């Protein structure tokens, strides 16, 4: 915006008649220029923005991916337990008794045994006690293995882990092996000579149930 001149007029002195005015009486009025007032606007300083990451420095990003549990191995364990029931649990000189046949024998024994027939012994030694417990657990092993396979299959169908059932199943088989080692043997014949492949497969297939 250009400054506007401000004129200041002064009165011209009149001379007497017959006198001419002097040059200073016709002097032009002085022109004074006023400087425009400059309005000072506040200066705004922008705050520097902190960069997310400094240029030239690589940023390491760790991505963790949760590994999905493998459901194939537990199903293999369930399948092997069921297959073992068709294999011999007892094998004597080429004659075998499968797991399903043992279940039938247990049913017949339960029907033929009365309440007092199990109390005929007068105590006996520890070897006989281990043998009695071991024989009972071995005869019930096919039923326990079927129960374990059913519970594990239901857990897998419900998207659950069968590891707890696998630990119980494996413990059952290990206890039977320990009791067999504590049973007395005569003439170098061990109880393991009469145990078939079906029992070992059914007992230790529980290792697949422990897989993550």
Q: What would you note in describing this structure?
A:
The protein has 212 residues and is mainly alpha-helical. The protein has a domain at 76-113 and 125-210. It has helices spanning 72-84, 99-112, 126-157, 163-182, 197-204, and strands at residues 6-7, 31-32, 88-92, 95-98. The strands form 2 sheets. A two-stranded antiparallel sheet has the order 1-2. The chain has a two-stranded antiparallel ribbon with strand order 3-4. Strand 3 (88-92) and strand 4 form a beta hairpin. Helix 1 crosses helix 3 (126-157), helix 1 (72-84) packs antiparallel against helix 5 and helix 3 (126-157) runs antiparallel to helix 4. The longest helix is centred in the C-terminal third of the chain and has 32 residues, at 126-157. The protein is rod-shaped. 16% of the residues are buried. The mean pLDDT is 75.
């Amino acid at each position: 915006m250009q400054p506007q001149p401000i004129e200041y007029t002064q009165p011209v002195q009149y001379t007497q008649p017959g006198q001419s005015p002097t040059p200073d009486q016709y002097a032009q009025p002085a022109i004074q220029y006023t400087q425009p007032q400059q309005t000072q606007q506040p200066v705004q300083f922008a705050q520097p923005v902190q960069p997310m990451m400094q240029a030239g420095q690589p940023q390491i990003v760790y991505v963790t991916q949760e590994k999905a549990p493998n459901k194939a191995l537990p199903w293999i364990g369930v399948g092997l337990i069921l297959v073992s029931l068709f294999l011999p649990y007892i094998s004597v000189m080429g004659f075998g008794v499968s797991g399903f046949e043992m279940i039938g024998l247990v049913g017949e024994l339960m029907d033929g045994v009365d309440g007092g027939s199990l109390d005929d012994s007068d105590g006996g030694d520890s070897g006989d006690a281990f043998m009695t417990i071991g024989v009972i657990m071995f005869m019930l092993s096919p039923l326990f293995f079927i129960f374990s396979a059913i519970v594990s299959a239901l857990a897998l169908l419900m998207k659950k882990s069968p590891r707890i059932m696998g630990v119980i199943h494996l413990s059952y088989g290990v206890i039977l092996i320990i009791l067999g080692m504590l049973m007395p043997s005569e003439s170098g014949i061990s109880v393991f000579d009469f145990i078939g492949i079906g029992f070992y497969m059914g007992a230790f297939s529980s290792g697949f149930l422990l897989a993550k």
